[in-house]
Amino acid sequence: MKKKHKIKKILKRKIVKKKIVKKKNKNMKELSREEIEKRKKKEKLWEELPLVCKARIVDIHTGRKIVILHEQDAEENEIHEGYRVVLKYGKEKHVAIVNLSSTIVRKGEIGIFRDMAGLLKVGEGRKINILHMERPASLEYIKMKMDGEGLSEERVKIIIDDLMRNRLAEPDIAIWISAMYMRGMEENETIALTKAIVESGDTLDLDAKPVVDKHCIGGVAGNRTTMIVVPIIAAAGIYMPKTSSRAITSPSGTADTMECLAKVNFQLKQLRKMVKKARGCVVWGGGMNIAPADDKMIKIRYPLSLDPRGVLLASILAKKKAVGAQYVVIDIPIGRGAKIADPEKAKELGRDFIRMGSKLGMNMEVLITDGSEPIGNGIGPALEAKDVLEVLEGNGPEDLRNKSCLIAGRLLEMVGEVKQGDGYDMASKLVNNGKALKKMYEIIKMQGGKPPNSGDIQFGKHKYVVKAKRSGKISHIDNKKISKIARAAGAPRDKKAGIYLYRLKGNKVKKGDILFDIYAESKNRLNFALKALEVWHPIEFEKMLLDVMG
Is the omega angle on the peptide bond into residue 292 within 30 degrees of 0, that is, cis? Predict the structure, then answer.
């Protein structure tokens, strides 16, 4: 009997091994023979080390992956200006573009700028291996996209693979993003990009159901709904592993605001443990290896102010898929000053989310909301944290509370926790009875923080009160302008900096009434914010006179 059992185990092992091999072969067959040979050739080239130079650190941050070689070294090794080379130091490998000089570096040296030295983790005088690099196959596919051709799933995977292996320089990715912006993306390309982004890193498997998530496409100042939705949902016993971003162009991201209350930087194993215990969390997605290809693309997209529709969809869908979300609510704010002003464009984008989400195995619902003015009173990490705690304590800004309960309510309905139409009331109940606040305290403690009351939140020590210069009715509060002033005051880098609003659209004010406070951590920052206020006037009053004719 023992012998028979042993034979069964061996056969089982062989069958599993055969399946794995078969799967690998299937993936290989999807690529053409020419593409496979190109990839093998590239791998071989990465192992050759024809040139070794000593690092000469140049204390300049360029924001680009460029290096300087001596002209004679370059000539002897057939490296020309603008060529790509692979720099290898220890375990680190990065692609850089070559500049040439006969004076900045000596023969046998390589000029490494400060940001490149940080990536390589190399110090002055250390020996760096410089590898000849042939033109990556992915550049041909990028050129195809520039010519208006759609890319297959295999080719999208190769581009993302080269991106993750640092085989593509930042200008290459910028060209690809620009091509997707100008030429558009077919649905199959967007889904292929989503899958490739997910596969570029780790994924969260809670081994539990249901798992929910939410996302706002942004553009609205304040709007810190996530930090209210998560404890409501977790208090209802539903899993919500929320990975959030830091601010790039706004005065605060969800991770920046949460960091005022607790730690946000965790590894994937820690995330899984926390969510299994408390049902929810609010952490920084960039601290984990979840959809890392998207983070690399974001670094290129934002400085260029390019947000191709297909890339936006893939970016959001990939991060939801990577955390195992089955039910997702997408918030698309519209209106003057929001990212999308046209309701029809918002609906079109919403339909794309629902359709593609379904193809990726996610049940998605889109909420088109009013994004014409800020949500909440606080704009800036600490000021937004105060709003969140006040709402969970049963008070706080009414618009922030209502929107948070609306989103949480839809999620509760989607998973079948309550009947359609009862979600908002259920979410409100969890806030009113204190269960959401109790859950938030549990999450804060679990993430290494000490639960505060809203009154414990401190703002910047330098303050300026902005008052109405005339009486009237407020017709508009501009999201972009008020965000720029908050950033000028130091937010999000200075956690206690930002703006606290006292008025809403439609409010009547008298001359001398307080409109908002500006907080800063230094006098210089406050002065900078006041200069910004002279340029950008965020609050507009109703105009009685529209035109004069004579």
Answer: no
**Do residues 259 and 334 share a domain?**
yes
Give the contacts of 143 (CB within 8 A, at least 6 positions apart). Answer: none
- Total number of domains in the chain: 5
User: Is 546 inside any structural domain?
Assistant: no
CA distance 300 to 175: 10
Mean pLDDT of 348-358: 97
E strand map for 454-512: 462-467, 472-477, 498-501, 508-509
Q: DSSP string covering 7-24, please?
A: HHHHHHHHHHHHHHHHHH
Q: Are 100 and 81 in contact (CB under 8 A)?
A: yes
Catalytic residue, chosen from 59, 172, 294, 307, is 307
Q: Which helix (H) or strand (E) holds 547?
A: none
Provide the pLDDT for residue 32. Answer: 59
Confidence category of residue 281, pLDDT binned at 50, 70, 90: very high
Examine the domain organization and report whether 429 and 516 are in the same domain: no
The per-residue pLDDT of the chain, averaged, comes to 90
Q: What is the pLDDT of residues 18-48, one digit of tens each?
A: 333 333 333 334 555 566 555 555 555 544 5
Mark whether 419 and 325 lie in a shared domain: yes
DSSP secondary structure letter of residue 541: E
| pTM, entire model | 0.84
Q: Residues near 137 by Cβ (< 8 Å), separated by ≥ 6?
A: 35, 38, 39, 42, 158, 162
Whether 294 is catalytic is no
Which residue segment(s) compose the domain that 145 sits in? Answer: 138-184
